[in-house]
Amino acid sequence: MDFTVIVCTYNRCGNLPSCLGALARQVDVEGLDWEVLVVDNNSTDNTRGTVERLATELPIKLRYAREEQQGLNHARNRGVTSSSGTHFTFVDDDIRVSPRWLGALRAAFAENDADAVGGRIHLDPSVELPAWVAPGSEIAGFLGYQDFGERAFRMDGRDKYPFGGNMSFHRRVVDRIGLFDPRLGRKGEGRKRGELFKGAETDYFNRLAAASPEARIFYEPRAIVYHRVQPFQLQQRYFLTIHFNAGFQKARYDTRRFPRRALGVPLFLYPQLTRAVAGYVGLLVTRGPDRAFRQLMTVGHFLGTMAGYRNASREPGMSPP
What we know:
Layout: E1 3-9, H1 16-24, E2 34-40, H2 47-57, E3 62-66, H3 72-82, E4 87-92, E5 95-97, H4 101-112, E6 116-123, H5 138-141, E7 153-155, E8 167-170, H6 172-177, H7 200-211, E9 217-227, H8 236-252, E10 261-262, E11 265-266, H9 269-287, H10 289-313
Parallel strand pairs: 1-2, 1-4, 2-3, 6-9
Antiparallel strand pairs: 4-8, 5-9, 6-8, 7-9, 10-11
Helix pairs in contact: 8-10, 9-10
């Protein structure tokens, strides 16, 4: 098997016909031996029945697997261990791939002897963005948008790396750094504060770059997918939550020692929070709430970081991920 396309899903069987239908319309894949594996992360809806029905209707190799442990990285790991492809690639269930997506990935791996490849993620054209989210902006990136332009290039895995909605790996990467850390990442539907953790792929690419300075991670602009944003993801509360949680998660598993603390929080964070709040107030007064919102997200990140350190200080024996 050349490629296994892994689709992790939880209680969104309504997304699967569109997602899997787009995968079935791939072109430029002659001679490619590939399959699609849907990993059901403990769903209570008709995910299994939907996959079984589509397996009889679509002209692709389609399999089903179930992962009982809740969490996106648990599901990703089940997909990796249940797949047989030399390469495995991830798309979300709310992603619609373009017709030449898989062919572009095949070419990128072959041309670059790549360890990992990522492509463009555009927002679905039907998405109506609120005024405080400019198309193609940094804030749009928190909706999964990623586009580095028309030219392919090698990514460093630290400052630039593929997003989780369109990332692919050679299986040798697993031999090198293992699986995804199941303590990180989204759990459940991602609508609540305790569920909504993004960026688990950041850890994976950081680990790959640290384990192998010569890691071959490439951006392939021809591999385009479209992300259908959910209505709750267009609310400011969603953006504030993912920033709070990102700070919390990073601090919660930080193994560094900071002897100068107050309430379990490193002292240097207090003036940083103060400056962030002052910056938000200044922008709010001079530019208005839409322009100031990005700075408010930064304030949320600092608050989450402080909460994470305080939480970790109560469990000094906690092991890092």
